[in-house]
């Protein structure tokens, strides 16, 4: 059987639970047609580079699939019918990536990168005192 990486984008106004339910539905389609899903990663809501069907954000989900081509075709057919799916892309790969994907590694690195303060890259500067809302010379 062939190996595939599949990513789909769901509308921003569906809940993460609904996205998980859609993922389970597509997983059932793959398994019913003789395939299996190795890894499922929910990447969360991300901003799109351009509007797709009047949406500026979308839920991103990655699936690593081992399945015959007929299973992929049926899953893509059902995704095309669904109004909640904005876009999807399936790529045949030579081997599936083990461990977290690049998107998940990026998230983990940003979670570990806590410097204690959230003042930005110039954290070495002392804070400036806040000015009062009263402007001098104006009465």
Low-confidence stretches: none
Residue share in β-strands: 35-45%
The total strand number stands at: 4
Q: Give the fraction of residues assigned to helices.
A: 25-40%
Straight-line distance between termini: 80 Å
Name the strands of the widest sheet in spatial order.
2-3-1-4
Mean pLDDT: 84
Give the oligomer, counting copies of the same chain as homo and different chains as hetero: single chain
Q: How many helical elements?
A: 3
Biggest sheet, in brief?
A: 4 strands, antiparallel
- Strand pairing plus helix content: what structural class? alpha+beta
Rg measurement, Å: 22 Å
Backbone shape = elongated
Q: What is the helix/strand order?
A: EHEEHEH
Could you outline the blueprint of secondary structure elements for this entry?
Elements: E1 2-11, H1 16-32, E2 36-52, E3 55-67, H2 69-81, E4 85-93, H3 102-112
Helix pairs in contact: 1-2
Overview in brief:
Strand 2 and strand 3 form a beta hairpin. It is built from 3 helices and 4 strands, in the order βαββαβα.
Features:
alpha+beta; 4-stranded antiparallel sheet; 139 residues
Explain what the structure shows.
The chain is α+β, with helices and mostly antiparallel strands. 15% of the residues are buried. The longest helix is centred in the first third of the chain and has 17 residues, at 16-32. The protein starts with a strand and ends in a 27-residue tail after the last helix. The chain contains three helices and four strands, in the order βαββαβα. 29% of the residues lie in helices and 35% in strands.
């Amino acid at each position: 059987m062939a190996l595939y990486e599949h990513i789909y984008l769901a509308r921003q106004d569906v809940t993460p639970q609904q996205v998980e339910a859609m993922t389970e539905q597509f997983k059932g389609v793959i398994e019913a047609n003789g395939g299996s899903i190795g890894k499922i990663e929910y990447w969360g809501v991300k901003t799109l580079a351009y509007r797709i069907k009047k949406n500026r954000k979308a839920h991103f989900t990655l699936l690593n699939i081992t399945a015959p081509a007929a299973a992929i075709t049926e899953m893509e057919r059902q995704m095309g019918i669904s109004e909640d799916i904005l876009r999807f892309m399936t790529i045949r790969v030579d081997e599936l990536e083990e461990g977290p994907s690049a998107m998940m590694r990026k998230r983990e690195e940003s979670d570990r990168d806590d410097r204690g303060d959230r003042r930005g890259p110039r954290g070495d500067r002392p804070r400036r005192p806040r000015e009062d809302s009263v402007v001098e010379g104006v009465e």
